[in-house]
User: What shape does this take?
Amino acid sequence: MKSEFYIDGKMILSYVSQPMPLQFIHSGYDEERGELVVKVVNAADSVYSTAIHVEGAKEIVKSGKIISLTAIDGKEENSYEEPKKIYPRTSDYDDFGSSRSYGYKRPHLGHDMMGQIGTPIIAVESGYVEALGWNQYGGWRIGIRSFDKKRYYYYAHLRQNFPYALDLKEGSVVTAGDVIGYMGHTGYSAKENVNNIETVHLHFGLQLIFDESQKEGNNEIWIDCYDLTRFLYKNRSLTEKNVETREWFRTFHMKDPSVTSYLQLNPDAPVLNSGN
Assistant: This one.
């Protein structure tokens, strides 16, 4: 099978592959980075090689990533018409405690999960938004506190210009599985809304708080989330997109008794809209 791609009427790329019924390809131009982006999806069980040739290019920088894709079960087929049936196993690795040097030397107290810009970010546990906004290290970030105040979830490096669910604010009550934001690569800048992180990813952190004096300072307790994310991967919250607002929402809703109890004690607390 041969496919060709054009910009301004000029063919800039041709793609040749074996005929496969479960294969999808797409290309585009990233104006922000000045890069040509080609996405090839192999939804079949067999492995095959791909050859890409760019017309007139003297040199091709091979900086692409290979991401494994899987449907919800063996009977499902991936398609661009139904993108919610495509579930990427995004690249990640356990780098908890490794060195970071921006601003000052410190250990990395979280788990980095690579993916694509705009990937929906899901709340791991129900709670309320304690921190929201720009941080020069984490970029656009969200901090969610569990209702018993013993756990603090940190989601950082969110998308430029559109980092959060539209009605998310400090104090918002969220339910586990809600879409709270979108993956990006903001941060490492004192100026707001800047993409200074080289690789698109989510920084996910979990802090344990047994006493409020441990929330900030030298007594903070952050844990390695690598094994936790392996477990959560098996229990993901399905999402779907509202094409008018460009927001993503959870597909299936649930009632969390902890949310009900919190709202009974805090009836004026805002609740994140989790439906489209």
The CA atoms of residues 109 and 135 lie 15 Å apart. The two ends are 39 Å apart (CA to CA). The first strand starts at residue 2 and ends at 7. Helices lie at 226-233, 257-265.
